[in-house]
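ingest -> fold -> write
write: protein_1
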Amino acid sequence: MSDHRPPHPQQTAAAVGGPLPSGQQHTEALAARGAQRTFRRGQLLIQEGDLGSTLYIVRSGRLRAYAADPNGKEITLGIYGAGEYVGEMSLDGGPRSANVETLETTTCSVVTRETLLAYIAEEPTFALEMMARLIRRARLATESTRSLALIDVYGRAKRLLEEMAGPPAADGSRTLRERITHREIASHLACSREMISKLMKDLEVGGYVAKREQRIVLVRALPARW
């Protein structure tokens, strides 16, 4: 269940009667069949290990998928915004593979397993879209595992910040597309918040990063090593 906002693949093949719906159109059509519910910030929607048979399609707001050990240490597996969905891995009848909570007030379309299967029966190409998304998430999870094992904390932080940064401005700086706290960065990287706070402070003193309108800005290219 990991990834930071993957693109929605477009189905380009034609079917009898006209072109196939795109992945985004499928998601919108399925969301229209679910129950619209709004959840407060910090609400736990899915708990790891529980049995569940519902899919959550985000209409507005953001969800965070994460794993936690018995000592409360967490690692973020993915952040999901409008148009994305979570919970699909439990639709095989198995236990939930991760926890999912709201990062802010979030509205979701809650879709039952029966509704999803009925939609797939009508639109089998949506099963291919779901498979493609699961494959992307599996690849990202593999890459994250490799990164945790082989790259030091600074290297992982550098990679995360650069992936989250938008295009360069006129002065060459790059602003992160979303607000993210030191705690959230630490959760992504499986390290302590104190370690990230010290690293970010050092980078700020060095003139590499700054904070503008509650967002982290990469003032200039981050060094290869720190």
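write: protein_2
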Amino acid sequence: MINSFHSTVLVLAHKEGAKPPDIQALQNSFPELPLSFTDLLAEATEIEISYKGKYLRLYGPARCIEMNDAYEISKRIAGAILVGDNGGGEALIFLPGPERGIYRVGYGSLALDDAEFVAQSIEVLLCMAEVDATKIGGVDA
């Protein structure tokens, strides 16, 4: 998928893809996580991106689990899974169910009412780049 990113989505840095046991651990912890996200993590982890000039970081499996535990994301926002951040104090979360999609929410809030919808899927965000950069928030890349 990383080779299918839209031309306005620039990879600034990344680490090697996750090993199958690490991806399995992530899937065991968060079975609702879309396969497209775990497929991306098999290609690269800790992906730092310039999204139309805004910074995004997508974590690897171990960091997703660690950060979700540390911030109790799934407890504070039922079913939510922390997948990255925007470098400006806001988390990127995946929310399953009827509200399915990627959202951003401040680490100081971590409430569904404060979460802002970003994109329906990781593909819409990164491969189609249909999201306005202001929806990303955070800092300039």
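write: annotation protein_2
The beta strands are 9-16, 44-51, 54-58, 81-85, 90-95, 101-106, 116-119.
The chain is about 30% helix and 30% strand.
pipeline exit 0
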